[in-house]
Amino acid sequence: xxxxxxxxxxxxxxxxxxxxxxxxxxxxxxxxxxxxxxxxxxxxxxxxxxxxxxxxxxxxxxxxxxxxxxxxxxxxxxxxxxxxxxxxxxxxxxxxxxxxxxxxxxxxxxxxxxxxxxxxxxxxxxxxxxxxxxxxxxxxxxxxxxxxxxxxxxxxxxxxxxxxxxxxxxxxxxxxxxxxxxx
Length: 183
Hints:
Elements: H1 11-18, H2 31-38, H3 42-53, H4 60-67, H5 80-94, H6 101-116, E1 119-123, E2 139-143, H7 163-168
Antiparallel strand pairs: 1-2
Helix pairs in contact: 2-3, 4-5, 5-6
């Protein structure tokens, strides 16, 4: 592998490549494509990017990833509750700025469900499928317990709650305003 003190490619070069279309694939260059051109691994390209971007302000999506309370298995990542929780975290970071109308409508539905049914979301890879709620399993809506406090999620052995997550995973003070939707 290349010496990390003298990279064979600079951060600026990587950023230039990922904005271009790879003629072989018709898609933008990936870290793997760039690494192959320079004789290094995808991970090495990623390392250069991470080292150069660690001090820049994080996007709402990156902040969400840092404070997401679970390591969700691939088979459950596209479940509706998981998507709504990602949307919720984005909303909490942006107050809906730049979010699509469709995303905000789904989020309003999600908040109504949590409130009207007095439920929280629980993640556990052992939760079986439930055709009426979550077809693939992994997530479930559970009746709110006093131990849930103000959270919209259930804390269990699979949960890692950061201090910021203690605030992030609560019902927002103000519901999404569809008039502010990006669409």
